[in-house]
Amino acid sequence: MQQSTDILSPQDLLAEVRKFISGAVRNTHGTNTLELARTALSLLRNLPAARDAVLEYFCTVFSVCVSKHVRQIEKNQNQPIHEETTIAEIHNVLCAFVNANPEAWAPIISTWSLELLGKLSSDYANRGNLPKNAGINDFLQQWMSCRATRTLIDITTQCLQCLMHLETESCIKALLDTSVSHSPHFDWVVAHVGSCFPNTVITRVLTCGLKDFCAMGYDQNIKNPKLNSVVGILGHLAGSHVNDIRTALLDLFRWSLDENINLDENTKSQKLATVPFLLNLASLSQTLLKALTTDVLQTLRPDIIPQLALFASDWCKYFNDQPEALIDLTVHLALGCEQGASQIVNILLDTSLNQSNVGYHSVNAAQSVKNVCREILELILQEIDSLVRAHGPQSSNIALLNSVKQELSFITPLLLNPNPLRVQTAVRILSLLGAQSPNVLVSSASFMLRKGETKFHLAALMRLVTDNVNTFAINTTDNENTVVGNGYFSQAVEQAIRESQFTTASNDGEGRQLFKNLITLLKWEKSDQVLILKSGIVTRAVRSNLQQISSMLMKIDNPLLAHDIAGILNLICIPDRDHYVPSIQLALQLTRSMIRYFFICIEENDVIKKVKGVKIVCRFLHVLTCYSQCARVLALRELLEQSIYNEPAKYFGAKVKFDPQTEDILLLQQNHKQGTSVMLAQRHSSVFHAGVIGQGPRKPPPENLIDKETITLNTTLLMDAIKSCCSNPELGQHPVNLDAISMVSLLLVELVSPDVMYNGLPWPDEEFTKVTVERDLQIRRTFKDVPLLWSHLELTARYRPALAYCSVLLRAIAATVLANWSPVEGVLLANVMALGLLLPPPLASIRDVLPNIKQHQINLVLRECIWAYMHENVPSPALFTRSEGSNVAWRDPDASTLNPRCIETLRLIVLANIHRMGALYSALFLHNRK
Amino acid sequence: MSTNDFIQALRKLDFPFCAREALCRIEMLCARPGKQMDLQMDLISEFVFGEIERRKKRMTPSAIQELQLVEVLSDFFQSPGGSPAVRNAVFLSLFPAESSRHTILGNLVSLAITTHNKPVLNATGIWMQQLGSTSVQSVGLARHILQDYFVLTPNTVDKLKQLPLLAPHFTANLLTAIGEVYKDRNPPTELLKLIGDWIDENPSLLLTSLMDNPALPTGGIPMTPITPIAGLFRWCVLSPLRHDPATTTTEDGQQKFYSKIQQLLMDSVLRLKNSGSNRHAISAQHLAATARVLTNIPHIQLQSASRDLALERLAQAVSAAMSANCIYGNKQELLALLQPLSYQHFLIEWTLKTNTSKMA
User: Fold this and answer.
1) Confidence class of residue A657 from pLDDT cuts 50, 70 and 90?
2) Which neighbouring-strand residues pair with A736?
3) What mean pLDDT do residues A903-908 have?
4) B115 vs A13, A56, A57: nearest CB
5) For chains A and B, what is the number of CB pairs under 8 angstroms?
């Protein structure tokens, strides 16, 4: 300020005044504006009395500038406006005043600038190039580009900043008062200034809006301009001050709930109007809705609801006394929530399901609150439903659904709630969401499959899955629908299986539950009483996951889980009436897993479970092998190989596999052991027949501890399984397929005989056994280790002529018996050969002869009777004739001539032991003669 | 020219000129014996202040018009010719007690102070005296002037320096009103300094309103003037009690000014003793109010030193006034009020003793 320089004499001052008056009154926009403004500024400094007039004159300067600016905008020109220099000068002086003496000048200047701003913005609101529905930001942009208004805003902000700590209230009041009188054109000022003092302005704007809302009374509509102003201002501030707005909204809400009896009527009615006010605000702006829901929802707990219930009737008055309108607004706001869906749903559910009436002022009120809550919930769901239907499932503009998607982890648990309403609600929400994003559907269905424990929940699951198939069939082509429709559930099953495998390894409960649930569902479907399941959705889903199921069966160790999985496979019945054909790969995999399950059953201690399981296996294998030849081959091979050589062999009486434990050998120690003796390659001087020096005597292999009965049972079951693999498609008179049994024989030969040569049917000359003695012994050894092989031979013998293919095995055993005269094997051999009709009638009784004769005679019998006969008569399947329509082949005894030498030898030997075999002799030879 | 013709002629004139013409006419009307008060009032409200809007709205904004009017008014009062008594009468009718024209009056006075417009200031002085210088209107005017010169444009305080020389009567009344403005709070230091200088340089200032006879139109009854003495005494007495810890630094400087003013006040009062004619210098109620404030302040709140100072000054004021015999009104009440204070300060006790014995 130029205090010292321009002290004017009274006369000069008077002259200045006159000059100013004449200039100001003429009110022309001549070139002398700057000069006049300087006069005015000097008056402002020196003549307090002229203050108002000077400021008023500045108003005209500013408005001239603004009007020029607006005109330039409209004409798209860009020329310098010479008033701008004046304005800059004015700006400097005014700011200097305010800074020098804020208490005195700031109120005056701020009032002046606010009024001027208000006037300018309402006067020029419809000018410029702004569209009709221009928002606050458009205004801001237009006005901030104008020098005059920018200067004014700056002055105002400075004043308010100076005053803020002195008298915040009155400043904001002035601001808002101006805003009220120039609303809505003034909003941009409030918004802009507000961002300098967000906290105060937000609170005050809200309070002001509330007062206005309250004062408007009940008969108002949403189009209330004041409300729009509040929304606009807050919306602008929300950009950078969301937290302040949130706090302010929350405070307002809390304040409205604070019950204090000592209040005047005015405040009371304002408190009552708060909630409708907030609702209306939220309905006008998504930003505010978001701010409101973030915090207020947290406050809204069930214990507050009764408190709110008291006010509800008063709130309705703000909606033309129509509760429906209030509910409708609430529903639409809820739909617009971008977060907090789970809270909204939960609070509605909690309230409507709350049993107690504590807190409500009457039982009726409690009931009606609960009803309203249910109604709102229902309406929300309906609304989403119709929106989804109207815009198609891909429209993702329903905020609430998006929110649900984010908060799935809170919604999904509702699916397993014991309460039906919660479950239904969750099902409906999720199936609506599922229309948009099927993976939600899939994951929640999988969740239910894994965790659901009651039939009720399974029914809900079915509803969740089938709902969508029906709802959205219209929008997709038929072809797609079948894929997608059963695809969802298939995917769900797939996911469930996958997830159940990766839960804590120690606990298979989830997996068991999953398969139990699937069994239940399949049973429902089979019962044909559930309409929705008639499409066979469960079957299809299970089928498409057979791969996973079977591979899971291959992996697991828990027999209980295995039983459950087998239950499903049992129900699924592979090649079904609807001609479902699994691929070869799948069929093989299923076979393998079934065989594995068979052996799991064999290991089972509980006889009932064992038999039940084997029955399932048999049934399944029967169906599968009838359909698929390769499955049959695999199944037989697996069954035989496993039962003979692998781990399960011991359950069939085989010698327990003995694994002599070997320690890690250190080369150094080995070298020490050698001592001074000569080191020889490929030789170990410490290994002996009785053991290895240093490791003690060789341990005998452990005994097989499984009792005889179990072994018998297991063997029977195995035979059943083999037979079911070899069965004809239609069980009936002839259940077993002879070709398949022949395959068993061939497999036995392949597995037992160590050589690929000399495996032919003909028995060579006896002398030739010297050549094959090694492998004969090996075969004999195998038969000794695995007694089960006799059962296998017996099986093939029963179904003639399959045994003929095992000729090599019989030959090997016969050759060893020839050599070591063992009656036991001899009996077994004779028995099997007789059963297989490989020996004609008198020779068939050799098994009865052998135990009763001397050892050397055994050799004779075998050589002269069996070997000689077999040598002469090749055991060919061609010898067996299958009668018409019969499944059993018979050998014609007359077709092959029996060498009398054989009969004679036998007769003489029996005769030599006649004291023991009188009856037999009579039966064999005397009877025969007749 | 009949009155109606004249009004019609005036209505044809534009704003600043019609006001001016109307003022001349009003002056003429005032000078005549039959005053035609109604006509005067009509002319004033229609043509001078434009309160009755008969024609279409003027284009010029109102604050500038106001400034124009103020300029016209000050020009009119300064114009040569016309007796001061008539001018004063016009002034009084322009600004009656109950009106909304006080802002304009404030601006007019403010302008007059700056431009050394003596007639206006004199007229204002009389206006203040007639309405009572402690009345709401006068205090309002004083506030306006203080606001203008001390708060808004502190650089123009110098303009007030010469005021007592320029218009002593106005200054005296203004001083009384200022005393009322700062009745319950401490005045700013600059004001204290100014007042100290005023009284120092013009010792008779405090008594001016008693001495000068206002130039009133015939038949006008001058009101009893109120001197600033009692108000200023109040400042001096109560200021030590309004001890504000925040302003300790400026306190010492301020207290010096108070002491100076107290000294000057005592001088003036004692000077009255000699003149003997002025029994109406100080109102007993005025002093009693000060004493009552002192009585009502609880003991504990105060530092004994400042309390002693306050009591001492009060005692000085009362005893000096009593001895000068320039107190009017209910002196008994004043003394009764001093009674409870007498136990706290010997000077009060002494004053009480002296005066009670004298009265008795």
Assistant:
1) confident
2) A727
3) 86
4) A13
5) 86
Contact B115 A27 (CB under 8 A): no
pLDDT 10s digits, A62-72: 888 888 888 88
Report how far apart, in Å, the C-alpha atoms of A561 and of each of A315, A504, A566, A595, A718 are. 59, 15, 9, 16, 22
**What's the Cα-to-Cα distance from A663 to each of A666, A683, A913, rounded to whole Å?**
9, 19, 57
Question: Does some domain include residue B70?
Answer: no
Token pair listed for B190 = 């600059």
Nearest to A105 among B71, B108, B152 (CB): B152
Q: Do B312 and B353 fall within a single domain?
A: yes
Q: Using the predicted structure, report yes or no on whether residue A369 has a pLDDT greater than 60.
A: yes
Q: Which of B227, B250, B265 is at the close of a domain?
A: B227
Residue B243 lies in a domain: yes
Which of B64, B111, B151 is the closest to A57 by Cβ? B64
| Predicted complex: ipTM over 0.85 | no
Are residue B190 and residue B104 in the same domain, yes or no?
yes
Domain count along chain B = 3
All residues of chain A having their beta carbon less than 8 Å from the beta carbon of residue B116 are 10
Report whether A913 contacts A861 (CB < 8 A): no
Q: Is residue B106 one of the residues assigned to a domain?
A: yes
- The alpha-carbon gap from B252 to the nearest alpha carbon of chain A, in Å, equals 24
Rounded to an integer, what distance in angstroms lies between the CA atom of residue B318 and that of residue B302? Answer: 22
Give chain A's contact residues with B (Cβ, < 8 Å): 1, 3, 7, 10-11, 13-14, 17-18, 20-21, 24-25, 27, 45-53, 55-57, 59-60, 101, 103-105, 108
Measured in angstroms, the CA of B153 and the nearest CA of chain A are apart by 7
In chain A, what are the domain boundaries? Answer: 1-196, 438-544, 547-562+572-656+703-736, 749-929
Non-local (6+) Cβ contacts of A272 within 8 A are: A256, A311, A314, A315
Cα–Cα separations (whole angstroms), residue A656 to A600, A690, A697, A784: 18, 20, 19, 12
Q: Rounded to an integer, what distance in angstroms lies between the CA atom of residue B153 and that of residue A313?
A: 59
Query: Tokens 């102070």 identify what position?
Result: B113
Angle between helices B84-94 and B62-78 (to 10 degrees): 160
Within 8 A of A101 by CB-CB distance, chain B residues are 151-152, 154
Coil vs helix vs strand at A122: helix
Q: Which of A98-112, A293-307, A794-808 has the lowest mean pLDDT?
A: A293-307
> Shortest Cα distance from B117 to chain A (angstroms)?
9
Contact A53 B149 (CB under 8 A): no
Cβ <8 Å between A53 and B110? no
Sequential DSSP letters for B204-229: GGGGHHHHPPP---TTPPPPPP--SH
> How long, in residues, is chain B?
360
In a domain, B277, yes or no: yes
As beta bridge partners, residue A891 has A880
In whole angstroms, give the CA distance from residue B252 to residue B196: 15
pLDDT at A480 over 50: no
Contact status, residue B205 vs residue B172, Cβ threshold 8 Å: yes
CA A696 to the chain's CA centroid: 58
Q: Find the residue in B nearest to A42 (Cα).
A: B153
Domain holding B175, by residue range, is 77-227
Helix A788-798 / helix A769-785 crossing angle, nearest 10 deg: 110
> Does one domain contain both B242 and B219?
no
Q: Please report how the helices A341-353 and A363-391 are oriented relative to each other, as an axis angle in degrees rounded to 10.
A: 140
Distance CA A926, CA A694 (A): 66
Is A25's CB within 8 Å of B71's CB? no
**What phi and psi values does residue A366 have, to the nearest 5 degrees?**
-60, -45
- Indicate yes or no: CB of B106 within 8 angstroms of CB of A46: no
Q: Are residues B235 and B356 in the same domain?
A: yes
Q: pLDDT-derived band of residue A713, with 50, 70 and 90 as boundaries?
A: very high
